[in-house]
Amino acid sequence: MYEEIKKKPKVQLKRLVEFLECPNSTEEENCGVVDEILKMCNFENLKNLEVNTNGQFSTGETYNLFFRKGEIGDWKNYFTRKKSDKLNHTIEEKFQGSGLKFSYV
């Protein structure tokens, strides 16, 4: 979950590389590989890549539409209560039985 990544990025990166079955070695961790990965995947860095500032889809929408503020809860500035309720219902329906827990604050 994005909230968990924002709170503890190193922990979540470790979980990801273990899931992908390519964990970092102790040597890589000691050499700063984890920090470098986090730096490269930082929201601001990704947002400012040339492809994301200048690229566009064949329909004309620009790639930068995928990047707003990178803040938890910012979606509330874009959804009405009705849209939010509909999305929450759809999420619960689609992810039923997955074990994922969602917080609608």
Automatic annotation (TrEMBL):
Domain Sulfotransferase: 1-99
A single MF term (Gene Ontology): sulfotransferase activity
EC number: 2.8.2.-
Keywords: Transferase
Coiled-coil regions, chain positions: none
Domain of life the protein comes from: Eukaryota
Stored InterPro entries: P-loop_NTPase, Sulfotransferase_dom
Transferase keyword on record: yes
UniProt similarity note: Belongs to the sulfotransferase 1 family.
Protein name, per record: Sulfotransferase
Species whose genome carries this gene: Solanum lycopersicum
